[in-house]
Amino acid sequence: MRAAAASGYLPDGSRLWKWTEGAQRNMPANKDDGGWKKFFWNSETGELLGRTGGSWFKITLFYVIFYGCLGGIFVGTIQALLLTLDDFKPTWQDRVAPPGLTHAPVLDKGEVTFHPNELESYLPFTKAMREFMSKYDDDNQKDSMKFEDCGLEPADYKNRGDLDSQTGIKKACKFSRERLGPCSGLDDRDFGFSTGKPCLIVKLNRIVNFRPRPPSSNDSIPEEAQPRVQPNVIPLHCTHKKEEDADKIGEIKYYGIGEGFPLQYYPYYGKRLHPHYLQPLVALQFTNLTRDTELRIECKVFGQNIDYNDKDRYQGRFDIKIKVRSS
């Protein structure tokens, strides 16, 4: 056995590994002996994460050039797109949805619940309505260079020229809060909430150069809304959402020019050309709501170019829940 070991072979003829000092030096280093530290930074070879400084420079240079090219393509694409846009006239309006029908106050989950004798229960609503109506104060509409009188009766569209900078800033039609009667907030700062007869202020959202067209015939609107149709007005009609609430809502009163949206306030020319524009408003007052009952009410506007979308609860319509508590 000693002879075999000395010769470097085992009795079965297999080679015997000599445990020499040289072989020990060639053995892999113990990974636990600072291996991860050397991988992060090897002071002997000057390697960082297994790569030399020259390698990192090449990698960094590649990504700087790569992302620089991507950024240049992105910026160039945006600039090319901006060249196709007009500062005053929307370039693409063929797929713009009809205007939304919204109201003040803006309601959380579309619900109004209050007690006429509890100020804190309706104060958030009336405060929001006063803030909204403040821009319609007569004192804010005295400048004849910004506003003009468009009449107190419904009239045809007010054509103020083209959508370009050469025509200059457009005047806006005045809209007096007094047209909203008891819902104006001038005499009753609580907008009817303190008497259990709450008001809502309704408006059509702005769309540049949009001209809403009144219904072509009574056949296109529900029978109960037909009495509200008149020339030069986009009619608004509210009714019960659920059949069981039909006899619980009571009378709804409408206030405004023509009790709808008069055409002389259209079209809207955009913020740059029409910065002082005031939308026409319609006020609703619910005069005889059944107490302690959650009532669901739906309001719609009717026009040839106004339709509705079940996925958008505010496209041409909205519905709210109102509950007047008695205890």
UniProtKB/TrEMBL annotation:
Residue ranges of the TM segments: 61-85
Gene3D superfamilies registered for this protein in UniProt: Na, k-atpase alpha subunit
Family statement drawn from the similarity comment of this UniProt entry: Belongs to the X(+)/potassium ATPases subunit beta family.
A molecular function GO annotation: ATPase activator activity
Highest taxon, organism lineage: Eukaryota
Pfam families per UniProt: Na_K-ATPase (PF00287)
Name of the protein in question: Sodium/potassium-transporting ATPase subunit beta
Membrane topology: Single-pass type II membrane protein
The keyword Glycoprotein appears for this protein: yes
Subunit description: The sodium/potassium-transporting ATPase is composed of a catalytic alpha subunit, an auxiliary non-catalytic beta subunit and an additional regulatory subunit.
InterPro entries to which the protein is assigned, alphabetical: Na/K_ATPase_sub_beta, Na/K_ATPase_sub_beta_sf
Compartments, as annotated in UniProt: Cell membrane; Membrane
Function: This is the non-catalytic component of the active enzyme, which catalyzes the hydrolysis of ATP coupled with the exchange of Na(+) and K(+) ions across the plasma membrane. The beta subunit regulates, through assembly of alpha/beta heterodimers, the number of sodium pumps transported to the plasma membrane.
A Gene Ontology cellular-component term: sodium:potassium-exchanging ATPase complex
Keywords: Cell membrane, Disulfide bond, Glycoprotein, Ion transport, Membrane, Potassium, Potassium transport, Signal-anchor, Sodium, Sodium transport, Sodium/potassium transport, Transmembrane, Transmembrane helix, Transport
